[in-house]
Amino acid sequence: MPSMLPKPLQGFGLTFVQMFKKVTTEQYPEDKRPTAPRYHGRHVLNRHPDGLEKCVGCELCAWACPADAIYVEGGWNTEEERYSPGERYGAVYQINYLRCIFCGLCIEACPTRSLTMSNDYELADDNRQNLIYTKEQLMAPLLPGMEQPPHPMRLGETEQDYYLRADPPAEVDVDAQAVDAVNPDSEVNA
């Protein structure tokens, strides 16, 4: 039923009622609340269990990005310098977080599951240049048993051996640990 009070008094009444409700104060920097397990935060470029990069420089993530926030330049692997199991690798990889809208379309477009999103949401900075993340900042950390690329393929002789493995090594779960290494407080549900 519509109120008979004038509109300004209705607004003041709403403000007056809110003054007596319990206030919820979050102590943000000291007490961080956990995010949802599938929260779209900072991007992570994952690695294979031997340390080679999963990114093959296909640039599909850049094509899928509606904000044009991703820049990828593919490079060619050689037998002397191998960064990924395929013919190519992401030689230059940048994400401009001033433009990124965290929609996750780049994640869906990635054919090798190289690009994932962590639960890290603290991306604020007072310098615009610091918000353009490079490949080195986005790469998942090397876990025990991994070797810094470039190095030869260790998990098989061909690219298919990396993607069609029937039994991944039990001691290293790269997808879960890469996200946990970026944000140890995250809860990753596979």
Architecture overview:
This protein has a three-stranded antiparallel β-sheet. A two-stranded antiparallel sheet has the order 1-4. The chain is α+β, with helices and mostly antiparallel strands and 190 residues long. The chain has helices at 7-18, 60-64, 105-109, 135-138, 159-163, 174-182; strands spanning 43-45, 70-76, 88-96, 115-117, 132-134. The protein is 21% helix and 13% strand. The chain starts with 6 loop residues before the first helix and ends in an 8-residue tail after the last helix.
Report helical residue fraction. 10-25%
Measured by DSSP, the beta-strand proportion falls in 5-15%
Number of domains: 1
Give me the oligomer status.
single chain
Mean pLDDT: 86
- Strand order, sheet with most strands: 2-3-5
How do the SSEs run, as a string of H and E? HEHEEHEEHHH
Shape: elongated
Question: Any low-confidence stretches, pLDDT <50, length ≥5?
Answer: 169-180, 186-190
CATH architecture group name: 2-Layer Sandwich
CATH-defined topology = Alpha-Beta Plaits
Sheet/helix structural class: alpha+beta
